[in-house]
Amino acid sequence: MKIGVPIEIKNNENRVGMTPSGVFELTKRNHTVFVQKDAGFGSGFFNQDYIKAGATILDTIEDVYAAAEMIIKVKEPIEKEYTLIKSHHTVFTYFHFASSEALTKAMIKSKAVCIAYETVEAEDGSLPLLIPMSEVAGRMSIQQGAKYLEKPIKGRGILLGGVPGVPPAKVLVLGAGVVGYQAAKMAAGLGAYVIIMDINMKALRYVSDSMPNNVISEFSSEYNIRKHIKDADLIIGGVLIKGAKAPKLITKDMLKEMRPGTVIVDVAVDQGGCFETTRPTTHQEPTYIIDDVVHYSVANMPGAVPYTSTMALTNVTLPYVIKLANEGWEKACENNAPLGRGLNIVKGKIVYKEIAEAFDLEFEMA
Ligand SMILES: NC(=O)c1ccc[n+]([C@@H]2O[C@H](COP(=O)([O-])OP(=O)(O)OC[C@H]3O[C@@H](n4cnc5c(N)ncnc54)[C@H](O)[C@@H]3O)[C@@H](O)[C@H]2O)c1
């Protein structure tokens, strides 16, 4: 199969859909890979690395789309890319269709096959192509939180791990899923005193069994949250209720109970945020302050660490890319149920119920 890897043109997106190692795996299997010139640059991969792995470098995005049957990307196509996608293309990328009617309609019109990373779903209901980005964001939330706790950027001026003779900071983590677990692990590693909350007892048991002694698990309730926010230095929001907006666990009135310079990082911002005062921010301007509380709520946190994020993402997408290349989309999706659940729009028809429902459009079974 002829596979194309275009450069990501969405603002500030430095990840790339395939690493040289992925190219090597595909060319080894007699597939042809076209990589757009400098597509890997933002993630630390050079044209020469791709050429050595067997890729052909093409100059423009138009060249890549024209040469390829399957396109491997990271972000959803933006308007400029809509007309490049044609009926002979299979596109495998994050789409997040439910949040864009324009993209949904453009992909229906293109008659391409659109397989979305975010709906590839394993038998146990987990989302294998979302987990790595949550791992990155969870770990990064502590790195960012630690930075914004510094006084010159309006934080409380406390070091997460303290020093001998001075107690460490207190970190409150809401949610003990992928984001919360990774956040708690990083904070604990730096020596902070960590409280992690969830309503899922299985998640709390796992935390309790596997974390070091400076991590305490506690059932999530308004009463318990109010108790801890008074002296927490850093609060991480990592809750998710599948298919729904995040519950507002920290309300505006609670900010007044926090100490000035407390930092709150809402990783769940992409689901509406789990703090009432959250609004999406960017890597250019990641924070804002309300009632002396520093808010960090960047919606695409992994974008700031493209080297790690690209590798983490492509590690999990590559096995599916190989299946699609070897078998073609129809057979690959038929033979592999998790991949089949990734089918969102096929040849002009919406085959994923929630997307059709989001825009009151027609749905057809895949
Ligand atoms: N900002 C970013 O760049 C970025 C990156 C990756 C993920 N995310 C987002 O982070 C959020 C968390 O993702 P995840 O992969 O950890 O999800 P997850 O499903 O693994 O974990 C969510 C946890 O929240 C818990 N929860 C639900 N209601 C709760 C409550 N009232 N109190 C405490 N815990 C509660 C659930 O039981 C679950 O354990 C999602 O919204 C995801 O989209 C954002």
Molecular structure report:
With 366 residues, this protein is of the alpha/beta class. The chain folds into two domains: 2-120 and 306-358, NAD(P)-binding Rossmann-like Domain (Rossmann fold), CATH 3.40.50.720; 131-304, Rossmann fold, CATH 3.40.50.720. It has 13 helices and 15 strands. It has helices spanning 20-28, 47-52, 61-67, 79-82, 101-110, 131-148, 178-189, 201-210, 222-229, 252-255, 306-335, 337-340, 353-358; strands spanning 2-5, 32-36, 56-58, 70-72, 90-93, 113-116, 170-174, 193-198, 215-219, 234-237, 263-266, 287-290, 293-296, 343-346, 349-350. Strands 3-2-1-4-5-6-14-15 form an eight-stranded mixed beta sheet, sandwiched between helices. A seven-stranded mixed beta sheet has the order 9-8-7-10-11-13-12, with helices on both faces. Helix 4 (79-82) links the parallel strand 4 and strand 5. Helix 6 crosses helix 7. 47% of the residues are buried. The model has no long low-confidence stretch (mean pLDDT 96). Nicotinamide-adenine-dinucleotide (NAD) binds next to helix 6, helix 7 and strand 8.
- CATH hierarchy, class of the largest domain: Alpha Beta
Instruction: Give the DSSP E fraction (strand runs of 2 or more residues).
Output: 15-25%
Rg calculated over all Cα atoms: 22 Å
Distinct ligand kinds: nicotinamide-adenine-dinucleotide
As a percent range, the share of helical residues equals 25-40%
CATH topology of the largest domain: Rossmann fold
For the record, give the distance between the C-alpha atoms at the N and C termini, rounded to a whole number: 23 Å
Q: Please count the beta strands (DSSP E, at least 2 residues each).
A: 15
- From the spread of the alpha carbons, the general shape counts as globular
Going by CATH, the architecture of the largest domain would be: 3-Layer(aba) Sandwich
How are helices and strands ordered from N to C? EHEHEHEHEHEHEHEHEHEHEEEHHEEH
Structural class: alpha/beta
Domain module tally: 2
> Which stretches of 5+ consecutive residues score pLDDT under 50?
none
Q: Mean pLDDT, rounded to whole units?
A: 96
